[in-house]
Amino acid sequence: MKPPVEKIYTPESSLKHPIRLFQQMWEDLLASRELAWRLMVRDINSQYRQSLLGVSWAFLPPIIMALGFTLANQASVIQIGKTDLPYPAYVMFSTVLWQTFVESLNAPLQALTQAKSLLAKVNFPREALILAKLGEIFFNFGIKIILIIGLFICFQISVNWTVILAPIAIIHLIFLGLFLGMLLAPLGLLYQDISRGLTLITGLWLFMTPVVYPVPESGLFSNLVKLNPVTPLLVTARELTTSTQLSQLTEFWIVSALTFFGLIITWMFFRLAMPFVIERISS
Q: What is the C-alpha separation between 55 and 60, in angstroms, rounded?
C-alpha cells in the first residue's frame, strides 16, 4: 500500500515556480486516469440508457442534415457547387466531423456543470473530468465510424492509403474544441450566458465552415471561411480519407501548432482559475 501523499497549500502563486507547476500538472494528469475511466463509463451508460433511440442519436443528425440539404440542392433552393464526393455523402461525412468538434467544444463546461456539487465537496484532480469527457468523445466518434463505413460502401467511394493519417487530423480537430472549451469552462460555470452563447455561436459557426458546401474560391465570404480555424482541420481530415491532394496543409499545421500551444496555456489557466471558481459557487 502506498503511503499517503502530503500536499501543502500556500497563498503563493504557482506561476512563480513554472517547473514545479508543470510537474504537478503532469502528476495530477496521471493520477486522474482511474477516476476518469470510471466517470467516462458512468456517463456513457447514462447517456444511452436514458434514451429510447440509444446510439441512433449518433447517426440521426448527419443523416437528417444530409437529407435536408440534398433536397434543397436538387430543388435549386441553394446552389452548392461541385463537391469531390457525392453530395449526400459529403454532407454526412462533414457533419460527423463538425459534430465531433462541437462535442469537444461543449465537453469541458458540461463536465464541470455535471460535477458542480462534487467540486465543492471533494478535492480531486479536476483533469479527471476533462479526461472522462475526452474518452466519451472518442467513444461517440467510434460509433459514428460505422456510419462513415456504411456511407462509403453505399456510395462506392474509394479510399486512399492516406486514410491511415486521417485520425491525426481528427485528433487535432478534437483538441481545438477542447482548447476553446477549457478556456470558457471556468467562466461558464459561473455564468449561464456562456452555455447559451455557445449554442448561438456554434449555429452561426456551422455556416462559416465548409460542412454543407466546398470552400469558396474567392470573395469576402471565402476569406471568412479560410480564416475559420476549424476549416483546415476539417478539410484535411476529409481529404486524407478520400484524396491524396491536400489543399490546406500549411494552414493545417499552423492551426495545429497554435492549438497545442494554446491547450497547454489553457490547461494552466484552468488549474489556476478553478479554486477561485469553486470558492464562488460554494459561497
A: 9
How far is it, in rounded angstroms, from Cα 146 to Cα 59? 9
- Please check whether residue 239 lies inside any domain of the structure: yes
Burial 134-168 (b: 16+ CB within 10 A, else e): bbbbeebbeebeebbeebbeeeebeeeebeeebee
Is 6 part of a structural domain of the chain? no
Q: Are 216 and 123 in contact (CB under 8 A)?
A: no
Is residue 5 situated within a structural domain?
Answer: no
Question: How far from chain centre, in Å, is Cα 80?
Answer: 26
CA 213 to the chain's CA centroid: 21
Place of cell 466546398: 214
Q: Calculate mean pLDDT across residues 237-259.
A: 90
For 4, list phi and psi in degrees, rounded to 5: -60, 145
Write out the residue range of the structural domain in which residue 267 sits.
31-40+48-282
Q: How many domains does the chain fold into?
A: 1
pLDDT for res 194: 87
Cell matching residue 136 = 466519451
Convert the pLDDT of each residue in 130-146 to its tens digit: 999 999 999 888 888 88
Whole-angstrom Cα distance, residue 250 to residue 172? 14
Residues 184, 268 contacting (CB under 8 angstroms): no
Q: Which three cell numbers stand for residue 107?
A: 465537453
Amino acid at 257: A
**Per-residue CA distances from 122 to 28, 127, 163, 282 (Å):** 15, 14, 44, 12
